[in-house]
Amino acid sequence: MPGKNGSGSPGKLKLNELTRIIVSSRTSFHPQTLLGPKIGEDAAFVDLGNCILVAHVDPITEAGRGSGRLAVIVASNDIAVSGARPKWALALFLLPPTGSINEYYYLFEEVGDEARKLGLEIIGGHSERSPGLSKPIVALSALGCACKECIVPTGGARPGDLVIQVGSAAREGALILAEDFRDLLVSAGVEESIIERASKLIDTLSIVDVAVELAENGLVSSMHDATEGGLLGALVEASLASNTLFKINKNKIIIDDVVSVITRALRLDPLKLISSGTLVATAPPAKANEVLRIAETLGYKSGVIGIVEASSKPGVVLVDNEHEYFIKEPPEDEISRFWT
Questions:
Q1: Which of left, alpha, beta for 267 (phi over 0: left; psi -120 to 50: alpha)?
Q2: What's the mean pLDDT in 127-146?
Q3: What's the N-to-C CA distance of the chain in angstroms?
Q4: What is the pairing mode between strands 222-225 and 279-283?
Q5: Which residues have C-beta within 8 Å of that of residue 97, sequence separation ≥ 6?
Q6: Residue-range domains of the chain with CATH
Q7: What single string gives the DSSP state of each residue in 290-315?
Q8: Which of 19, 63, 87, 95 is deepest in the core (most CB within 10 A)?
Q9: Tens digits of per-residue pLDDT, 63-94?
Q10: Residue 58, φ and ψ in degrees, nearest 5
Q11: Is it the case that residue 22 has pLDDT exceeding 80?
């Protein structure tokens, strides 16, 4: 449950605001709840006796075209990085009153088609035409079950662990820009071939298989899907959740060429651009090579980008050649400027 932005800005709440909400909104505390709302955590854990229920909800607010597919992918990723394979989901559709029913059918079909690819059953939900909306908003509540030894919290990183990136940063952001802001990219001089490649990145954003395999083999101490706030936001959230310091070598971060072209053209920081499909994991040094091997076998680019250190001040130290920058709070996502 990460948060960052202040009043008037699109995106998540600032950490201090979200902390107040978490503290004030908790009511009942059931002994079966192993992990409830906490800064930086992707999902909740509930002990059902025979398995651990992993639950998560996420809306798609900063994408237009493809938002149905993204809703399924993003929610499923957050279940998977917690150690469970997503099995069930509830879908919420909030629709502008002026849209056509054919547009809405297409959105529903997107959700259904993507869910079938992942073996995810849509077991219920809600849809309505809502006042004040200019585009549809889809939110998915996803559920999965994992063995007790398989669950992986975001806050599991320990000093001495290596920080591993699986999948290029900012592919989700490049996809959204190609789908919803194509004219802007063309006017910035981005070639049509690059835009076409970016528009197909949605097929690369699921990390369900690699995350579940890493969890079931007991290779990682923590995992996190880099959504809003980008890779840098995910690193900060993981450090806060584990109360450790992440020291990251900027030159080791993986960024695909299509992402580099688009972010340079629009003068965006790819480390702060929405990045679902980029897995941030921590692992003991003795297990890191196996993490990299599994990721490569499953077709993902991966690499060690840093180390976890003990510190009284959690956050991220970003090392860029001879300079070091300390980041203590997730940044506002670069994509938000295009929806204001």
A1: left
A2: 92
A3: 23
A4: antiparallel
A5: 129, 130, 131, 133
A6: 15-146 (3.30.1330.10), 154-338 (3.90.650.10)
A7: HHHHHHHHTT--EEEEEEEE--SS-E
A8: 63
A9: 888 899 999 999 999 999 999 999 999 999 99
A10: -150, 135
A11: no
Q: The pTM is what? A: 0.90
Please check the confidence at residue 129 and state whether its pLDDT lies above 80: yes
Residue 14 is given by DSSP the state P
Q: Which residues make Cβ contacts (< 8 Å) with residue 200, sequence separation at least 6?
A: none
User: Which residues are CB-contacts of 318 (< 8 A; sequence separation ≥ 6)?
Assistant: 232, 248, 250, 271, 324, 325, 326, 327
What local confidence, expressed as pLDDT, does residue 185 receive? 97
Between the alpha carbon of residue 65 and those of residues 135, 156, 157, the distances in Å are 10, 35, 36
Task: Give dist(CA 229, CA 239) in Å, integer.
Answer: 14
- Positive or negative: CA dihedral 285, 220, 78, 239: negative
Identity of residue 248 = I
Are the C-beta atoms of 225 and 74 separated by less than 8 Å?
A: yes
Length of the chain: 340
Q: Is the pLDDT of residue 202 over 60?
A: yes
Residue 29 burial by Cβ neighbours in a 10 Å radius (0-12, 13-18, 19+): exposed
Ramachandran category for residue 220: left, alpha or beta (phi over 0 → left; psi -120 to 50 → alpha): beta
Number of Cβ atoms within 10 Å of the Cβ of 213: 16
User: Beta strands 85-95 and 121-129: pairing type?
Assistant: parallel
Model confidence at 1, pLDDT cuts 50, 70, 90, reads: very low
Name the DSSP class of 321: T
As given in the structure block, the two tokens for residue 169 are 């940063």
